[in-house]
Design a protein that fits this description.
Elements: E1 5-10, H1 12-30, E2 35-41, H2 45-53, E3 61-70, E4 81-85, E5 95-103, H3 107-117, E6 123-131, E7 144-148, E8 154-155, E9 171-174, H4 176-181
Parallel strand pairs: 2-3, 2-5, 5-6, 6-7
Antiparallel strand pairs: 1-9, 3-4, 8-9
Helix pairs in contact: 1-2
Length: 201
């Protein structure tokens, strides 16, 4: 552990088991229909890659990406979600699964679900690796949940703190004192809440 990390919350083996179970559930529900995995950058990049590889080889699985951000002053987010990168192809008539690294406040996923429903996919489901339900600001549907995060700032496996720690193969807790120091809420950076006023989730 570095000085900023308090300890490992989920090791690589635990994450792999969760990802495998999620892929199996999505494949079962898809009943052989092609699946479009729609990853939310940057945090879901590691997760979506491993999730895609965990599907049965015979299933037609395709990948696309979105990026969103929130804007505010210092550590304070306005709570407004903005689309920074749209999908590369149309989702109309497709079986779409939104792939998120973590859902906390619910604002990002709520925004994406509403936007994508308006584009008339055949089905729209949501898959999240980490559910962090302690500070929901809006109710959102999570069709597939991998792990329940503790009420702490989590980094690793795609999740960052000020763009650090994404590369870690495990999920670790950040020391509360470090997280409280905060940082600028920037596009693609972690959307976790470190105080009631920070992050959009």
């Amino acid at each position: 552990m570095t000085g900023e990390l308090a300890g490992i919350e989920f090791d690589a083996a635990t994450i792999a088991r969760a990802v495998g179970a999620l892929a199996a559930s999505i494949a079962r529900d898809s009943a052989g229909e092609p699946v479009l995995l729609l990853g939310v950058l940057k945090g879901a990049s590691f997760f979506i890659a491993d999730l895609a590889r965990a599907f049965p080889p015979a299933l037609d699985v395709r990948l696309d990406f979105l990026a969103v951000g929130s804007y505010g002053k210092g550590t304070r987010s306005s709570g407004e979600v903005r689309l920074l990168k749209d999908t590369s192809e149309s989702v109309e008539g497709k079986h779409v699964v939104i792939v998120e690294d973590i859902v906390e406040g619910g604002l990002t996923l709520n925004y994406l679900q509403g936007m994508l429903r308006g584009r008339k996919p055949a089905t729209l489901r949501s898959c999240v690796l980490l559910d962090k339900p302690y500070r929901r600001r809006v109710e959102v549907t999570l069709d597939y949940k991998g792990l329940t995060a503790p009420d702490a700032f989590i980094v690793g496996y795609g999740l960052d703190y000020q763009e650090k720690y994404r590369h870690l193969p495990y999920l670790a807790r950040l020391h509360a004192s470090v997280a409280q120091d905060g940082g600028i809420v920037s596009p693609g950076a972690s959307r976790q809440v470190v105080s009631p006023s920070k992050g959009i989730g």
